[in-house]
Amino acid sequence: MDALASLAHGFSIALTPTNLLFVFIGVTLGQLIGALPGIGPSAGMALLLPITFGLDPVTALVMLSGIMYGGMYGGTLTSVLVNVPGEAASVMTAVDGNQLARQGRAGQALAASAIGSFLAGIGAVTALVFLTPALSAFALSFSAPEYFLLALLGITATASLGTGSAIKAMIGATLGLMIALVGTDPIQGTSRLTFGSLDLLEGIDFLPVAIGVFGIAEILVSMEQTQAGHVVRTRLKDMWLTRKDWLECRMAMLRGGVIGFFIGLMPGAGPTVAALLAYVVEKKASPHPEKFGHGALDGVAAAESANNSAAHGAMIPMLALGIPGSASTAVLLAALVLLGIRPGPMLLTEQADLVWGLIASMFIGNVMLLIMNLPLAPLFASILRIPYAYLVPGILIVSLVGAYAISLSLFNVGLTLFFGMVGYLMIRADIPRAPLVLAVVLAPLMESSLRQSLMLSEGSPGIFVQRPLSAVLALLVILSLALPLFNFLLARRAARRAGVAEALSHSSD
Amino acid sequence: MKATNFIAAFMLLGLSVMVLSGTWYLPYWADFAPGSAFAPFWVAMIGVVLAVSLFVATLFDDSGEPHSFPDRRGIVRVTALMAGLWLMVLLIPLIGFVTAGILFSLYLLIGIERRPLAPSLLTTAVVTGLVYGVFIAWLGISLPAGPFGI
């Protein structure tokens, strides 16, 4: 009941005219950013973070989180109508959504996505209402070893649960840790890796890294070729589900929502993994798996429900523990720090207005997004017809002005461009960028809690397994490191068996 | 992809050596607690292990996956954009942020994208108005000004 009373208080904060306006601005920007190919919600949040500097923290956060989950809805438009995922989590939607559009069922694909995203989003925020206070209260018993292991798990899980090479994901995280080492040692105050530069004494700010690695890098990739996509036209009267469509999709939405929520809770997995997993599970559960890849409405509904649910689920570890589970929540956490708020388990008691106002704003934002994506979807689809080239100068100049605004220094602008080049090379070398950003955010907490733990134990690493909770976390870290190795061995065994089977079939010929 | 992976492994190895050598003079262990070089040492060690792992994994990889870098035209476009951005940053102290932004926007739209003049001028005007309205008028951020006072 406490949670419901707090939520009611949150609604009184979120429903003030200013906050309502910024929820609307946030979700609209998110919808647009999600729809634009080449720039995802994390990039959009990083690019727009500087414009929140003059705002009240609650207003700033409701806008930024609106961009985060608005991006999940917006990504569908480009996936279905242009066959280009607006953001990574819409990859599976592009597979079946565009096939449906080619069959003249774009409206149904968009409607199934919007309704699925809405129901899964509302379900995930409801779970967030009850789980965040419980986890936050539990986390009050954490001390330095648990914090170190939790932050470490956030990084190692990114490698094991991600979609690409585990080694490359760990390389991304290591680069992030190296960036975070630059500056003044947080405990002893000596300068490290500054190479005599006074500008580097205070370390490298998070924003130039995030704007560069996400924003500038994605623009550089989009510049490789002239953008030209065929946009499928849709009519307003198509934007609804028939009874048959609803019966086909309802269980897919439920399964996708549940899978997405639990994946979102896990550090490092995020909406992309959630959408992939929900799609695969749905294909197995579907009565017509042969339709998958050729226009399965339930496949679209499952993937879209999962990615929105995961985006909301990832808020729980961020709000309750101060540990971001995804790149978007890492940007949100950095926003908290920039606004002068200390994240962690005390956030819920020290900043109750902020947390509950933010949670309540998500209910409101999801309703706004449902309206934007059902009757107003054709309007947003028409924005896709603006040539992308005309948007690039605005995105780049706003990014650089934003980087300048952090510390009124041109050095940060140069750093942003440098990290833009780093991000571009990472994309081309297939090294994921989310672990780098997560590591930059988590590194200060990791280093200080590691050193505090070893100080307490006089150098004995046994402190990390002394308490049951830390022992469980240590085990999870080891498992997350062993999982990619286990998968590699399984894949090799499967390949060897396939090779033997092929050899046998050839010999029988 | 093999060549890209080898380059990535060598770059990571180089960075790890740089972290190690850049913090070599700092204490690994102070009187009763880890010193300033403790974290850099372990991060560099992880970097070395990952660089070697990537090198070995690539050496035994026979998938023949092609690299994902763009063709010559793509590389020229990306390089031209990056050069324009760096030039803009170098020009900011001389001509101001807003003026440098206007020149960059026109260079990008007309020079690189080969877009028609009128929509390019309109886009530049909208972007300039957005930067002025949000950052200068609303947030009160004082951007470096040039000889024209903007």
TrEMBL record, chain A:
Kindly provide the name given to this protein in its UniProt entry.
DUF112 domain-containing protein
Show the stretches that span the lipid bilayer.
Answer: 109-131, 137-159, 204-223, 258-281, 314-341, 353-374, 394-427, 470-490
Q: Which UniProt keywords apply?
A: Membrane, Transmembrane, Transmembrane helix
Tell me what organism the protein belongs to: Ancylobacter defluvii
Q: Does the keyword NAD apply?
A: no
The UniProt record lists the DUF112 domain at 20-438
Tell me any Pfam family this protein matches. Answer: TctA
Q: Does the keyword section mention Transmembrane?
A: yes
TrEMBL record, chain B:
* InterPro entries tied to this protein: DUF1468
Assigned keywords, A-Z: Membrane, Transmembrane, Transmembrane helix
Q: Where are the transmembrane segments?
A: 6-26, 38-60, 80-109, 121-141
Does Phosphoprotein count among this protein's keywords?
Answer: no
**Pfam families per the record?**
TctB
Which intervals hold domain DUF1468? Answer: 7-144
Protein name per UniProt:
DUF1468 domain-containing protein
Q: What is the lineage of its organism?
A: Bacteria, Pseudomonadati, Pseudomonadota, Alphaproteobacteria, Hyphomicrobiales
